[in-house]
Write a structure and sequence with these properties.
Structural class: alpha+beta
Number of helices: 7
Radius of gyration: 18 Å
Distance between the termini: 39 Å
Strand order of the largest sheet: 4-3-2-6
Largest sheet: 4 strands, antiparallel
Number of strands: 6
Length: about 210
């Protein structure tokens, strides 16, 4: 059973005033001339997509790029400093060649229809916002269909979560009857370079 969601623009997030006194992330945002949370979301969304050397709330300021983890983690941290209820949500999706060109060949080698992978985004009430929507992130499409949704803390480890999802798939999904969680983990790891290559191709085509 999958869950289909619709993403809203950054303007749907709270227009709460930023305050340099609220915390270090608010201070870093104010330094950049930003006045409100929704403006901060728009700024984060506009930053180039790129993998960070570290995965914390200050990485995007120091490195000038961000991923779904660091962009959303930075926003959630700024919101928490202000006492605004914005959650970080994991959407576990079925990674296929339709989403990232090239993974189909890897999946075929492992005899799998897909592998589960995590994407994260923001939730404020019933509103969900993806600060990497439209970014040059290697994905062919905006993912709106998910195997499951989970609210998590910024910095939570993905591996144990994906292990539990893989165990459930191997136990319940007929297409995974002959698979094991270890096989799914190995296949997902093998897809990593394909993501990097897809990002590079998109960067060249949009440059």
């Amino acid at each position: 059973m999958s869950v289909v969601i619709e993403f809203a623009p950054t303007s749907a997030l709270p227009a709460v005033a930023l305050s340099a006194a609220a915390g270090p992330i608010n201070a870093r945002l104010v330094e950049r001339g930003l006045a409100s949370l929704d403006a901060a979301a728009a700024w984060l969304h506009a930053q180039p997509y790129g993998h960070n050397r570290r995965r914390d709330a200050t990485a995007i300021f120091d490195e000038g790029v961000g991923t779904c983890v660091t962009k959303h983690g930075t926003f959630v941290t700024a919101s928490q400093e202000l006492g605004v209820d914005v959650a970080l949500e994991w959407g576990t999706y079925a990674l296929t060649d339709e989403i990232v060109t090239g993974v189909g060949e890897i999946l075929a080698r492992y005899g799998l229809p897909f592998v589960p992978r995590v994407h994260c985004f923001l939730r404020h009430g019933n509103v969900r916002v993806d600060l990497t929507e439209g970014n040059c992130n290697g994905k062919n499409v905006l993912i709106t269909e998910y195997l499951q949704l989970d609210e998590v803390a910024f910095g939570a480890a993905e591996e144990p979560h994906l292990r539990r999802v893989a165990e459930r798939l191997c136990r319940e999904h007929p297409d995974f009857a002959d698979a094991t969680p270890d096989l799914l983990a190995e296949a997902l790891d093998a897809c990593g370079p394909t993501f990097v290559a897809a990002c590079a191709r998109q960067a060249v085509s949009s440059g």
